[in-house]
Amino acid sequence: MLPRKRKRIGKFVVWLLVAVMVFGFTGCSQGDDGDVKTPTQGVQPTKPGDSKAQGDDVGQEAGITQGANQDADTTPEPTEPEKEVRTDFYISAIDEEIPSMYEYWKDYFSIGIAITRGELLNDFKGELIIQQFNSMTCGNEMKPDALLDREATKSAGTETCPVLKFDSCDEMLQFCMDNNIKMRGHTLVWHSQTPDWFFMEGYSNKQDAVFASREVMLLRMENYIRLVMEYVNTTYPGVVYAWDVVNEAIAPGDGGEDGMRMSDSFWYQTIGSDFVEKAFEYARKYADPEQKLFYNDFNTYESAKRIAILKLVNKIKEQGNIDGIGMQSHIGMSSPTLLDYEETIRKFGETGLEIQITELDINLDTNTEEDFIKEGTRYKRLFFTFKNLVDTGAANITNVTVWGLTDEGSWLNKDGKRYPLLFNQVLETKPAFWGVLMDDGIPLY
Ligand code: G3I
Question: Which letter does DSSP use for residue 254 in this model?
Fold first, then answer.
């Protein structure tokens, strides 16, 4: 059993009162269960094409109802209920009721979390994840180095079909199934975190091992993709909704054809430049029809990289084998500029493919209060941008995933001095969390 939260009164009750005042005027309901799920002082997302800006409605409707049958001299001026602007951002996600990010953004895109098995099985973190996210990515547990079983593969005695094990990710898939969270399958074909022996004749891990032939590697690739998909889709039907079929294949300047990564990619070196197309061909063949197939990469806003990615995905799109582009989005506090970042989403959006922000974090390396607020602003502006792009139909953004739950657990935090995420190590919300929720307490500029 996950622990139950203690619901404290106090500041939250003040919010609740403000919420009752605001929604009392309009007769808006809070939702079926009556729970307050969004910050009362936040800008509420509206569906594309929906012109009802909440703040305006409140003012207008209050004015009409109060002014109708009353003497002009005695009629009090309609007053807006005073909005409380949040100043205390550090709320314990364990002890207090906090709004749910996925509920807040549910009319736009799913909100995802990348997490490791160890973190997920922590009761407090597990409960927080259920409350905040409706999409999950395994941080490492579904990568080839986690699934490939060398001993069993060698024992099976076939050069073309590896043997896999799924103990690394079973509990994570089960957690998603039990809690109605969808999973992004990350990742099938990647130059990194795929053991060298997988590319060698006889699955050798010796220094003098030689590459397997293109034909053998194509069969290994096809069988690997088939086995992962068959297992996941039969054991946990309906859980995985998107696959990162190929990860990080573009690296302009690395010597590969059309800007492809070559120097450290054994996929490129064994199969050749069409390995990405082949991977998508096999993925389409074995994926469930409703599962979406993604090409995923980092620094997608660098112009040469963006151009090469567009060329690649357009080719695969013509073949009918890709549904989306994943923009990892490991970004800094000032780089890339939001203009460059937005421009990339627009360009990718023009392909008609889905866009997912698959690995968002902001590499803040200072921890002053001022910088935490600035980080909140950057998150808020990013989500404002995503909203605007969806509202205007410029890009079909279907998921935004943050790459980790707490600063402490971030892959960036090797030196213990990085603060890239939405929760701190004691599971308090940071200004960044309230930025994602478009809270008025976080400046937009
Ligand atoms: O498995 C060993 C374990 O046996 C050992 O005890 C431990 C000691 O540090 O290391 C473990 O391996 C680490 C592994 O994460 C699992 O924790 C590796 O050293 C470490 O390099 C690896 O880092 C992962 C990184 O990918 C490697 O490529 C990060 O956790 C993971 O968040 C990161 O994720 C990638 C995405 O998949 C693709 N995009 C970039 C993103 C960030 O690098």
Answer: S
Contact 198, 148 (CB under 8 A): yes
At residue 271, the 3 state secondary structure works out as: helix
The helix (run of H) or strand (run of E) holding residue 241 is strand 240-247
328 lines ligand 1 (CB under 6 A): yes
- Which whole number is the average pLDDT over 102-112? 98
Average pLDDT over residues 186-201: 98
* Residue 297 bridge partners (DSSP): 327
Instruction: Express each pLDDT in 302-326 by its tens digit.
Output: 999 999 999 999 999 999 999 999 9
Q: Is the CB of 137 under 6 A from ligand 1?
A: no
pLDDT for 238-282, tens place per residue?
999 999 999 999 999 999 999 999 999 999 999 999 999 999 999
Do you find a cis peptide bond into 289, omega within 30 degrees of 0? no
171 is catalytic: no
Q: In terms of pLDDT, which residue wins out, 7 or 101?
A: 101
Q: Whose CA is closest to 394, among 433, 362, 429, 347?
A: 347
Q: Which is more confidently placed, 90 or 21?
A: 90
Tokens 């930025």, residue? 435
pLDDT at 74: 55
Distance CA 185, CA 124 (A): 24
Distance, in Å, from the CA atom of 37 to the CA atom of 219, rounded to the nearest integer, reads 49
- Nearest protein Cα to ligand 1, atom 36: 139
139 C-alpha to center of ligand 1: Å?
8
Integer Rg of the chain from CA: 24
Catalytic residue among 127, 141, 222, 248: 248
Q: For residue 140, report the distance from its CA to the centre of ligand 1, in Å.
A: 6
CATH class of domain segment(s) 139-168+190-326: alpha beta
Determine contact, residues 314/321, Cβ cutoff 8 Å.
no
The yes-or-no answer on residue 248 being catalytic is: yes
Q: For the chain, give every residue range classified as CATH 3.20.20.80.
A: 92-133+329-335+347-445, 139-168+190-326
Ligand 1 centroid – CA 445 distance (Å): 34
What atom in ligand 1 is closest to the CA of residue 328? 39
Q: Is the separation of the CB atoms in 399 and 112 below 8 Å? A: yes
The pLDDT value given to residue 62? 30
Quick one: 92-133+329-335+347-445 is in which CATH superfamily? Glycosidases (3.20.20.80)
Ligand 1 centre distance from Cα of residue 337 (Å): 28
Residue 431 structure tokens: 């200004």
